[in-house]
Design brief:
- The chain has 14 helices and no strands.
- By secondary structure, the protein is mainly alpha-helical.
- It has one domain.
């Protein structure tokens, strides 16, 4: 055997033994991580385009049943798109306007009540049975303030669109993209699938159908759950005489679009207002109401309304929320969970469903 053959054989053995295979797999994994990090960095830098695109995609998926209904009734694609878009803008804009006019006069009082409630908790913790001094409380507050004002948190999407011009640009861009998604969404996806054939084309069609179904179901289901939560908690705190029931109900509705964390934050805020206005007993009752509504939502309402739209473990949701908040602020927190749900749904439908072979004897017996 020549020296070249021995060197080639030695190199092959080095790459194919256990350590070599492990090294190659590690290098491939590192390459995937680097490429993913580069892609995420690029998306964050283009957030003014990416966020309106994602919002338009989610809204188009939620409105797709309306488009399908109109198209089946003989309405042309362009007319169905305009009807859906205009009605959606009018309804959404009307709801936002009603909420703003109903809440704006009470918003200052809500902020004051929440601040007073925090002060009462501060006094209780400082002078109560807990061994926490003022220095520790100040340190905790400074840590939270430093995080909220840090450059890492400030790079979120909310900070990026805080300028009025960028916000208006994002809204207009989202509306324009939504129009084309409603009108030509199926054609756009078919255009991207044009280079593929056979089982790859079928896989792409499954992915498109799954993404639209998951996103649409998530938005419609979350809106339904949020409305039920807001009505139940709003009526409950109004019955026990807690003021500012309407703005608190609005906050409950909006916070429901951030799973796990949103309901907790809304419940804490309602309890703080009840603590200031009605005392600790009312605050405890508010906490009980919030817990009862959340249990009803988690054990009954979500499984019925959400169906297969969101089958994610709470730990996965928490990780998605954390990553979305770091990368995109509040907007990222809202968008992260449906994106994670779509990703998991695509993984489950990557391969075609297994076909159970028929048993001729069973079929003959059935006949």
């Amino acid at each position: 055997m020549s020296d070249e053959s021995r060197a080639r054989s030695s190199l092959q053995n080095l790459l194919t033994d256990r350590l070599g295979v492990l090294g190659l797999r590690s290098a491939q994994l590192l390459l995937v991580i680097v490429l993913a990090a580069v892609a995420v960095f690029a998306l964050v830098q283009l957030k003014l385009v990416v966020i309106p695109l994602l919002i338009a995609l989610i809204l188009a998926a939620a409105l797709s049943p309306v488009i399908t209904f109109l198209r089946k009734r003989g309405v042309s694609a362009i007319l169905a798109t305009w009807i859906t878009l205009i009605v959606g803008i009018v309804v959404f804009g009307g709801l936002v306007t009603l909420i703003v006019f109903a809440v704006r006069d009470q918003w200052g009082e809500l902020v004051t009540s929440a601040s007073d409630g925090i002060d009462q908790l501060h006094d209780f913790v400082q002078g109560g049975p807990f061994a926490i001094d003022q220095a520790q409380l100040d340190g905790l507050r400074d840590t939270v303030v430093d995080f909220l004002t840090s450059s890492q948190f400030g790079t979120g999407a909310l900070a990026g669109v805080s300028v009025a011009g960028e916000l208006i640009t994002g809204i207009v861009l989202a509306v324009v993209i939504l129009f084309f998604f409603l009108k030509d969404g199926d054609r756009i996806w078919a255009f991207f699938l044009r280079p593929f054939h056979g089982h790859v084309l079928e896989r792409g069609q499954r992915i498109g159908h799954t993404a639209v179904k998951t996103l649409g179901g998530y938005v419609r289901g979350t809106a339904t759950v949020a409305a039920v939560d807001a009505i139940a908690i709003g009526v409950g705190i109004a019955i026990i005489g807690v003021p500012l029931a309407l703005p608190l109900a609005v906050i409950v509705f909006l916070s429901a679009f951030i799973p796990l964390i949103g309901a907790t934050v809304a419940g804490i805020l309602a309890a703080l207002v009840a603590l200031v206005a009605n005392g600790p007993v009312a605050a405890l009752i508010v906490v009980i109401i919030v817990i009862a509504v959340n249990q009803l939502e988690g054990n009954f309402l979500q499984p019925v309304v959400m169906a297969q739209s969101l089958k994610l473990h709470p730990l996965v949701i928490l990780l998605a929320l954390t990553a979305g908040t770091i990368l995109g602020g509040i907007v990222g927190a809202v968008l992260s969970v449906p994106i994670a749900a779509v990703g998991w749904a695509i993984v489950k439908t990557w391969n075609p469903p297994a076909v159970t072979p028929r048993d001729p004897e069973i079929e003959q017996t059935a006949v």
